[in-house]
Design brief:
13 helices, alpha/beta, three-stranded antiparallel beta sheet
Length: 465
């Protein structure tokens, strides 16, 4: 494999190897600080990060507000305090090597306020901000205010063009790089557009080449493109390295850093990663953000799939084929189904799925009474962790609501991601992963359950393996 040439990222020459940020305490100060200490770019998550008391004990993110708005404010305070905490840990663990970046989601609750709060409280400790999950027009202006670089995450040249023309052209000097995140292979939330087929993955090379050509047209020839999603062995990307058509390129790793000694995920999660098979990571659209996301097809995801499978369209009055009365709810109020759907609904009720929950799309799903209570409780307990949530109908706008019916086909993302990152339960909680996670089982480096340190992993990656 060609030798890796260092790149200048966030003002310092480093290995072109970037740790991908993973939210809710999965990429923290320990892991990102170790990655930077190994000479690369470490990225901690600024999404509801952990903080600790004076004895180093984890502070639970408890919520006491009686309203969603009150709990939302508590969440913002938790997020700012946790982000500052993790920045300090990362900076200390890096020993002055590499670079420290913070990753945030533009669609998370109060993204601008949280960015300001963390960057103000951790001045000089953070060198760059990566931001995706939406169109983060304002992230450049915020980064410039605190003297840090910004790294938008995009999945197409068209998305970057919109960002550049609307906002980023005013803040050229602080653009540190552009992260291209493959929408079919990356873990977590994916940037698939409505014009792209989730079942038809595209080769990333022509897409990144189009991005580079777009960047060059704006005079950004020397700004690195950071390839994210699907990167495992660098030798498989040899044609990308020192390719004059692509210009400077770095590589981002999101899934492989999960299986390191410094990774904060549970032992159960690490062991699960070693057993995954190809196809076990499932591209789905259950997320309350409305984005596609990639997660392990565990019982949590399978329950969501089954929930949506037990779904029929209805009308509130007899219209056309929807003429068959069917009672739902404790009062047995009628909805109207087709004759065929009535037979499906009757079968589900016999199987124990006796509670019908209406969706925003004029459909009704059938679940057990216990699951219905679980869903409704989570919706009521919403703490406003997103800018807008399909599951609970929360919105951070003045009305506090999306104006749509809460969607019982989704889930409370804050609750399940806190649970999976702070317990040994990776079966009945959401478990994000990239689509190449099955390669842990095939890669001889992990034979016998070997788990490397971050430094060992970075050194291994740099060899091409």
């Amino acid at each position: 494999m060609k030798p890796l040439r260092p790149l200048v990222i966030s003002g310092r020459e480093v290995l072109p190897l970037v740790e991908g940020g993973k939210g809710i305490s999965v990429s923290n100060g320990e892991s990102s600080g170790a990655w930077a200490g190994a000479g690369g770019v470490g990225t901690f998550s600024g999404v509801n990060a952990d903080s600790y008391d004076e004895n180093g004990n984890l502070l639970e993110q408890a919520y006491y507000g009686k309203t969603r708005r009150e709990r939302h404010e508590e969440l913002v305070a938790h997020s700012i305090r946790g982000g500052i905490t993790q920045a300090r840990i990362a900076y200390e663990r890096s020993n002055g090597e590499g670079r420290i970046h913070m990753n945030v989601l533009w669609e998370m609750a109060a993204a601008e306020r949280i960015l300001h709060g963390i960057l103000e409280g951790a001045r000089g400790l953070i060198h760059g901000v990566t931001c995706g999950a939406g169109m983060p027009y304002k992230v450049a202006e915020i980064a410039v205010r605190y003297g840090v670089h910004y790294y938008p995450i995009v999945s197409s040249a068209r998305a970057f063009r919109a960002l550049w023309l609307r906002a980023y052209n005013k803040f050229r000097d602080n653009l540190g790089g552009v992260v291209y995140e493959d929408p079919w292979l990356a873990g977590g939330h994916n940037g698939l557009s409505n014009s792209e087929d989730p079942e038809q993955p595209e080769d990333p090379f022509p897409r990144v080449l189009a991005l580079r050509q777009m960047m060059n047209s704006f005079g950004l020839n020397e700004i690195p493109v950071i390839m994210a999603g699907g990167v495992w062995y660098l030798r498989e990307w040899a044609e990308w390295i020192d390719n004059p058509d692509l210009g400077p390129v770095a590589f981002q790793y999101g899934t492989r850093p999960l299986l390191t000694e410094e990774s904060p995920i549970s032992t159960a999660w690490k062991q699960k990663l070693l057993t995954l098979k190809e196809g076990d990571v499932f591209l789905n659209r259950f997320s309350p953000t409305g984005f596609y996301s990639s997660a392990v097809n565990n019982p949590f995801i399978r329950e969501l799939r089954a929930r949506s499978d037990r779904q029929v369209a209805y009308s509130v009055k007899p219209v056309g084929e929807h003429s068959v009365e069917f009672p739902i709810g404790p009062r047995g109020r009628p909805i109207y189904l087709t004759e065929a759907d009535k037979l499906h609904a009757e079968r589900w009720v016999i199987e124990g799925y006796t509670t019908g929950l209406k969706t925003p799309d004029n459909t009704v799903i059938f679940v057990t009474p216990e699951k219905a209570n679980h869903i409704l409780t989570d919706q009521i307990d919403c703490m406003g962790c997103l800018s807008a949530c399909m599951f609970s109908n929360w919105s951070q706008n003045e009305d506090g609501t999306t104006g749509k019916r809460a969607d019982p086909r989704s889930y409370c993302i804050q609750k399940t991601l806190q649970a999976v990152s702070h317990s040994e339960d990776c079966e009945t909680q959401l478990m994000f992963a990239g689509h190449n996670a099955y390669r842990f089982a095939d890669d001889p480096y992990y034979a016998g359950g070997f788990i490397p340190t971050v430094r060992q992993l970075v050194e291994r990656i740099a060899t091409g393996d």
